Amino acid sequence: MHQRYEPSGSVSAFGRMAVELDGRSDVHGLLVLACDGNGWTREEVDPVLSGLRTPVFGGIFPQVIFDGLNRERGTLVVTLPVHPRIAVIGGLSGPARETETQVEAVADAWGAESADPYGTLLVFVDGLSSGIATLVQSLFFCFGLERNLVGGGAGSLSFRKAPCLITPEGLVEDGALLAHLPFRSGVGVAHGWTPVSHGMKVTEADRNVIRTLDWRPAFQVYRELVEAHSGRSFDDTPFFDLAKGYPFGINRLGAEVVVRDPLMVDDAQGLVCVGEVPTGSFVKLLHGTADSLIAAAGRATELAKASAPFNTESHHTALFIDCISRVLFLGDRMEQELAAAAAGRPLFGALTLGEIANSGRDYLEFYNKTAVLALLAES
Q1: Where are the domains of the chain?
Q2: pTM of structure
Q3: What is the pLDDT of residue 67?
Q4: In the chain, fewer beta carbons within 10 Å around the N or the C end?
Q5: Is the model's pLDDT at 255 over the cut of 70?
Q6: Residue 363 DSSP one-character state
Q7: Taking Cα atoms as reference points, which of 190, 172, 168 lies closest to residue 86?
Q8: How confident is the model at residue 254 (pLDDT cuts 50, 70, 90)?
Q9: Buried b (16+ CB within 10 A) or exposed e, 235-267
């Protein structure tokens, strides 16, 4: 796998790079990670994507990671020495059964039971879709724990819905993209957030919107806890500026707490989150420090090395899927987190609206505010 980075973010520059790589005999797939700051549109990009003979897939993300830095503009193209299997799942915000049926069809077509057990699935979703939990559950049921899955949510930090998934046919919104790579992998997940409240029951929720906590309006409860702990007020602080340091945590037996990131307050005083929060679940308010988040990135790398079914000291590629809200929290210390995750090896990746991972042993989850490190072995 080789990386090519184009800093301007223009469609024409990407097109020239893609056409050049499309003609090479050693390139059998193109993974494209583009920045939302590029301002790409379907009208410009779709003709480039559909004109390529080489399978192409990826997403448009708030930022991408290349050469030890998080980039707000530009396009990263990773060449693959193998042919990826690519599938697109549409209409994630629609009926759950439609998503389940599409995932089942992909699993059947790919021969889920007989496929390479060491293969890795890359999964990119529209991070603003409301049915991501259904997708993740369907992936778990259809593909199980026999192979690793890793990926994250594409989209814009403006939270405006737009086409953000890169497919061979063009840009897609409100969907998911699956790419099977015949690479063995080791995956590590860590976040660095700790509880600062008692447990609260989610007494009413609508997919990714928490309506009530302990039978009270969700924002009312959240506001009391955050303002008491931070000493700041939502009256004079924009919601996300304060909320970025105070996510929710859902406990999972024997695994990392699943973090849920509140994005905004709706008209009914509900908390709109990245990812679904089930009615009846118990959550705690979480908080962290820059040091704890940086240490967690290093821990994700160590966990990936420990789970890898190959010698991690030999050549391999490090893919880092990290939450964009960690960038907003860490500020100018973000480079330290990237260095901790890289641990001296080359690193590339995306800063996402939610992260997807399992390690081949743990339950597949959609995370927020979490660092996911995957080591990919090409042999």
Answers
A1: 2-190+293-377, 194-287
A2: 0.91
A3: 93
A4: C
A5: no
A6: P
A7: 168
A8: low
A9: eeeebeebbbbbbbbbeeeeebbbbbbbbebee
